[in-house]
Specification:
Layout: E1 9-15, E2 18-22, E3 33-34, E4 42-48, E5 52-57, E6 69-74, E7 78-84, E8 88-95, H1 103-106, E9 110-119, E10 127-134, E11 146-154, E12 157-164, E13 183-188, E14 192-196, E15 199-204, E16 208-216, E17 221-223, E18 226-228, H2 239-248, H3 250-268, H4 273-287, E19 290-294, E20 300-304, H5 316-329, H6 333-345, E21 364-365, H7 398-416, H8 420-424, H9 426-439, H10 460-479, H11 486-498, H12 524-529, H13 536-549, E22 563-565, H14 566-573, H15 581-595, E23 603-607, E24 613-617, H16 627-634
Helix pairs in contact: 4-15, 5-6, 5-7, 5-16, 7-9, 7-10, 9-10, 10-11, 14-15
Length: 635
């Protein structure tokens, strides 16, 4: 398989506060950084015969010699580098056990750095390899006083640690920030470790081995006024036990990682190499953008961070586009995505008769901040859910979020058979479905998730989402044995929308607008689930239009601007019965990744004419790239 060229390469991918990437094609070509660009420097060196030192990771200092990088390969779970000079060949692999179908392994706060050295001159040599992490891993921007040291793990292995002297877990929230709390750990199997004013390091004196990088955040999420640790704490007494377990079970965890690798690549093979490449680029950022924990009611919650787009936590219109990946490989996680939204919607804070947008700003989930009149200044400890939210109506997404929550609730039931969510929340789902019925198909001017080119009224793609939400509530009612006319209403609304079709058979961007178009990606559920709301000839006409409008790096969202969303492109591609659009759109996205001069993590909001992004880096919505695989599996 051809190699992937990316603007940034995944290395340590644990969670939104510990997702470290290399913004260079060579591991020593630039400093490593967290996903939003702050330096979080890892460095690596090898020493041969105690005299010849070579840098393989991090910008070399003081004229230090580098070992040339000869290969770089990225698969969904593993980033592998090869370095070689006349004496030595060194392979280094970065991987995190983001095992999507095992929630406890998925929650492990560790990443592996495996290496193997081979001497090419046929001689015996002394060999040392050192991995280090700078002190800046422990704080946001302002330097803090650190503590650290070395701890014995077993008879022949130790681990180094460091962290701020004054610990205040979860004291920061927002976008583009790092944690000022928790402890960083580094260990090398049968190696030595140390802590000094520059940070921590570990040294191994053998030609094949493993380093463990770990982040113990102590507390992970504040939800409805209570602080919770990550899910892994249910299985392990402390971080030392986690590191010991991961070292002892490294082979099993690697087998799991390679199993997920093989599964993703085999499931996507029929759609072409470019499609496989964009999935490989997206997988780790999607899972590292979430956090798993269990609340006081015993519910598993799985909260996302809306990276570089306000930093909101558990955003509904971020969970919705991400859903194909989870429906494929662990649909039970959907319950963890939507439970918090239902619980917040029942608090005194939420007074609207439509669904909320979010429940806070990561990692504080005490109530919606999007559209809050004081959102930039909200005190971090105020319990918003006990008070009126003061979120302006003009900043809300009523049809968008009602449709999303009805979809997510039905899809959870449809793919797991678990009725608990729809049974418990039937009353609130009914309220949201009624909101959609009352909104109709000729919508007022209201915000939607795609208003990058400005607000719009009578938006047809948004109306399609409303129709689908109504249809999903009909299915929910049917599953629970309740009588409703929602299925008939959805069909009637869909028929009304089709009456606005243009002469070429497509639907315009908005009701009554001529010579306009847009991606009708929301229709994908009708097609793949067989709801029979819209005719096949509409999908054919829409898909043909998308091919006609495709530019160098993709097809725009609509006629107004050249910008697009990569997730929605792949949803829209599934409407095409010819099979041409999925590989075509994937090739365009891969071309953007290869040609952009930016070094941001895989953006979902890009330009289709010039290779740049607008923002939205490291977002979990890239789980939507799996829609073609999901459609194929259902088919």
């Amino acid at each position: 398989m051809a190699k992937i060229v990316l603007p940034s390469y995944p290395l340590i991918t644990i969670d939104p506060f510990m997702s470290i990437w290399s913004p260079s094609d060579t591991l020593w070509g630039s400093d490593t950084q967290i996903w939003h660009g702050q330096k979080k420097r890892l460095y690596g060196n090898v020493l041969i015969d105690r005299t010849d030192s070579y840098c393989f990771m991090g910008v070399p200092e003081n004229g230090e010699e580098v070992i040339p990088q000869t290969d770089l390969d990225v698969t969904p779970l593993i980033t592998a580098y090869t370095f070689q000079n006349e004496t030595l060949r060194l392979t280094v692999k970065f991987w995190t056990p983001l095992i999507i179908d095992d929630i406890y392994k998925l929650s492990l706060p560790v990443s592996f750095i495996d290496y193997e050295a081979e001497f090419l001159d046929g001689k015996n040599h002394e060999f040392e390899i050192l991995i280090g992490a700078d002190r800046e891993f422990c704080f946001n921007k302002r330097k803090k006083k650190l503590i650290g040291g070395e701890i014995s793990l077993n008879d022949n292995t130790s681990l180094a640690f460091m962290g701020c002297k004054n610990q205040a877990p979860l004291r920061k929230s927002g976008d583009g920030v790092s944690a000022d709390w928790g402890y960083i750990y580094l260990s090398g199997d049968k190696g030595s470790c140390g802590f000094d004013k520059s940070g921590i390091h570990s040294i191994i004196e053998k030609t094949k081995g493993t380093f463990i990088f770990a982040f113990d955040d102590v507390k992970s999420i504040e939800y409805m006024g209570t602080q919770y640790p990550c899910l892994w704490t249910e299985k392990f007494s402390d971080i030392k036990a986690v590191i010991k377990y991961t070292l002892e079970n490294r082979d099993e965890l690697l087998n799991d990682a390679e199993r997920i690798n093989s599964l993703i690549l085999s499931d996507s093979e029929k759609f072409g190499e470019s499609y496989q490449h964009i999935l490989a680029a997206a997988y780790r950022q999607v899972l590292a953008g979430h956090k798993l924990f269990r609340d006081k009611n015993g519910e598993i919650l799985y909260f996302s961070k809306e990276c570089h787009s306000n930093g909101c936590i558990n955003t509904v219109d971020v969970s919705y586009p991400a859903v194909p990946l989870f429906l494929l490989y662990n649909p039970s996680l959907l319950k963890g995505m939507i439970t918090g939204i239902f619980e917040y919607a029942r608090t005194p804070s939420w007074e609207y008769d439509f669904a909320p947008h979010d429940i806070g700003r990561y990692p504080i989930a005490n109530g919606q901040v999007y559209g809050h009149k004081n959102s930039p200044l909200l005190p971090k400890r105020k319990i918003y859910f006990e008070n009126k939210c003061h979120c302006s109506f003009s900043s809300q997404m009523p049809v968008e979020e009602c449709g999303n929550m009805l979809a997510l609730s039905f899809l959870h039931y449809r793919f797991t058979g678990d009725k608990s969510v729809i049974e418990k929340n039937y009353d609130i789902l009914e309220k949201w479905a009624n909101y959609l019925v009352n909104a109709g198909v000729v919508l007022e001017n209201q915000l939607c998730t795609d208003d990058f080119a400005g607000h719009s009224e009578k938006n047809i793609n948004l109306a399609v989402k409303g129709v689908l939400g109504i249809a999903f509530f009909g299915k929910i009612s049917e599953a629970l044995g309740k009588s409703t006319d929602m299925a008939k209403t959805a069909k009637r609304f869909a028929k009304q929308l089709c009456e606005f079709a243009l002469p070429d058979g497509t639907l315009p961007f908005s009701v009554g607008s001529n010579d306009t178009w847009s991606l009708k990606y929301n229709m994908v559920w009708d097609k793949i689930l067989g709801l029979s709301l819209f005719p096949e000839e509409l999908y054919t006409a829409e898909s043909r239009k998308y091919r006609e409008k495709t530019a160098k790096y993709g097809v725009p969202l609509d006629y107004r601007k050249s910008l697009t969303k990569t997730d929605w492109m792949m949803w829209a591609a599934v409407l095409d019965e010819t099979g041409e659009n999925v590989p075509l759109f994937a090739e365009k996205i891969e071309k953007y990744l290869a040609n952009t001069k930016e070094t941001w993590v895989f953006s979902d909001w890009i330009d289709t004419i010039e290779p740049f992004s607008y923002s939205f880096h490291h977002r979990t919505v890239q789980g939507g790239l799996w829609m073609p695989v999901l459609a194929d599996k259902i088919k």
